[in-house]
Amino acid sequence: MERVKPKVLICDSFSEKGIEMLSSVGFDITYLPKITSQDLLSMVHEYDVLIVRGRTKVTKEVISKGKNLKIVGRAGVGLDNIDLESAKSRGIKVLNTPMASTNAVAELTIGLMMALSRGIAQGDAGIKQGKWLKHELMGSELKGKTLGVIGMGRIGTRVARLAKAFGMKILAFDIIKLSEELLDELGAKTVPLDELLASSDFITLHVTLTEDSYHMMNEERLSKMKRTAYVVNASRGAVIDEKALLNALKNGSIKGAALDVFEVEPPISSELVKLQNVVTTPHIGAQTEEAQELAATLLAEKIIDALSN
To answer: I want to staple 232 with a disulfide (CB 3.0 to 4.6 A). Which of 115, 193, 258, 283 is the partner?
Structure first.
């Protein structure tokens, strides 16, 4: 009897190299990177594997209709768009690629810090409007400043390594004990969160979104920052209370913010993104050619391995 090919539905953009890897081992691929939630619900029962990024929501309803589903693969880190409990109850494996975007997000974080400290966005906008803001844009250097890293996982650690190369001092906070070897390598010091907030010139967030981290940067914690400090978020939008951040920026409690992620995306009606002391990007932390290809190939390897076994 001829072996039935596993059927794979790719619901979001996915590197061609990853598709080639899956096809080369005989998988039947359907590539619909703009599939609607309604179409997904009507089609999912046909497939053994779903591949998504952040756009597609794999809800309880999707999982219940996916009677043949064996694997849901996320080409990226976060799994908050997948109903993990429903998948677990059905015995469906959930795979992701946390390593793929590490460097891309870390480099963007450093870029956002530089944009804040040197007024890069304002300078560019000014020139495009025929304004020469040379004297208005007095910046400051990263060298010698203190960076507070909240969440010293893969990305936070990579940010700290890059920041060290700029001559920054590193303070770290994590719920997990960090190794002395890592701290020595980075010249970093672990401190309580309140101390990190009060002592840092830049604060960068690299935490997953959980009940504990939701709005962790609230009015109380923002008020503990220096008035000259900046906050950078390239993790998940909801770890910052955007209303509290708006107030802190408007009343001068902190100097500025850089955001790649938002509580609601896109943040079309947000007053926050219109402030002059806020630099924004449209959730592009993992949007590099290198990171996307790595996410696709790593996920393809994991799916092939899981179905082979």
So the answer is: 258
